[in-house]
Q: What sequence folds into this?
């Protein structure tokens, strides 16, 4: 394991029965976050968009991953790419936000790029002895698609994603996630470490606390369990109380958090963690639904209200954990069997740290 991450995650355990929570340093030390940025985040597959975000030719969506400005595009042939959006001239981002365009034009000096990243025009460069249009395209980032998401791998070395997720794909096939569209997005500033959010998302043990009047009534926390897990994913099953429907929570490590209801018309939620810092990030909760439901303003409003209310119950818990792990009296406590998904996530972190310490081939 890399020197910085050596003690950050604490001892490993063969299963959840012997597992402990992470040491406070894992959530607090900027050096740990910097090491994670390389060994865990840049090395992994990170979600950058839903395919429905770039549904039509010319659509684009800007995203920043670990201080790396990117843009997701769909060209006239329907091909999706993830590109750097930093102009090859003087570093200005060529586009912000999302929209539809025939080309991406830097607002600074009007260098223009095709949607495949190649340079289309560069005004007043004919006297430059170093200018080479073919060498000045926007760099392309390794990307893949799965379940309706578009993923990017910043270091370009991650193993193919889909073969590692076959059990997860089978479990959520009923929801047809690739067909779901975004009903709306709810955003929150989140002043806590990204792992606090992942851990909170991956256990329903806390239904008995923050969600006592809501989720505990429909899907009691003490009946939840990890259904299937692998090196790159985990699935948390949430059986229902009588008269209610089950739902499934899942993660693709390190950063893809998803929820799918079960019933006649399954809906989903994607927690997008952006603008990551050592002890803060911006949370964008994407509300996903079948197109027919998404077209209903009444449904969209009710869905937004429900998801917002649940997350508002989670905020004090996440803020409290971030404060608590900073205490000199904090020591990692034992995990419950209800937190098997956390044990699996922590093992993933340790594997990433160990891989980072190996010499390059």
A:
């Amino acid at each position: 394991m890399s020197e910085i991450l050596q003690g950050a995650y604490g001892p490993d355990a063969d299963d959840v029965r012997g597992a402990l929570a992470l040491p406070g340093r894992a959530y607090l030390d900027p050096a740990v976050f910097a090491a994670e940025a390389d060994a865990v985040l840049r090395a992994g597959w990170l979600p950058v968009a839903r395919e429905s975000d770039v549904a039509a030719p010319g659509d684009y969506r800007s995203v920043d991953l670990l201080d790396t400005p990117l843009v997701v595009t769909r060209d006239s042939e329907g091909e999706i790419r993830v590109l750097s959006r930093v102009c090859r001239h003087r570093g200005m981002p060529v586009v912000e936000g999302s929209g539809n365009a025939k080309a991406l034009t830097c607002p600074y000096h009007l260098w223009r790029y095709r949607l495949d990243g190649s340079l289309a025009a560069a005004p007043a460069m004919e006297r430059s002895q170093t200018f080479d249009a073919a060498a000045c395209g926007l760099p392309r980032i390794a990307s893949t698609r799965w379940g309706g998401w578009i993923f990017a791998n910043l270091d370009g070395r991650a193993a193919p994603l889909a073969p590692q997720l076959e059990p997860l794909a089978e479990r959520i096939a009923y929801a047809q996630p690739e067909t779901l569209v975004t009903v709306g997005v709810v955003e929150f500033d989140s002043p806590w470490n990204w792992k606090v959010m992942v851990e909170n998302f991956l256990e329903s043990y806390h239904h008995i606390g923050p969600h006592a009047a809501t989720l505990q009534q429909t899907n009691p926390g003490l009946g939840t369990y990890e259904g299937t897990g692998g090196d790159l994913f985990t699935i948390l099953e949430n059986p229902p109380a009588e008269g209610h429907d089950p739902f499934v929570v899942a993660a693709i490590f390190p950063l893809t958090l998803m929820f799918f209801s079960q019933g006649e018309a399954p809906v989903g939620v994607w927690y997008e963690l952006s603008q990551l810092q050592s002890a803060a990030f911006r949370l964008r909760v994407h509300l996903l639904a079948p197109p027919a439901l998404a077209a209903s303003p009444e449904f969209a409003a009710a869905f937004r209200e429900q998801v917002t209310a649940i997350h508002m119950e989670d905020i004090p818990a996440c803020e409290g954990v971030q404060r608590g792990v900073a205490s000199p009296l904090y020591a990692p406590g034992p995990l419950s069997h209800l937190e098997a998904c956390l044990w699996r996530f922590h093992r993933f972190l340790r594997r990433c740290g160990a891989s980072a310490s190996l010499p390059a081939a």
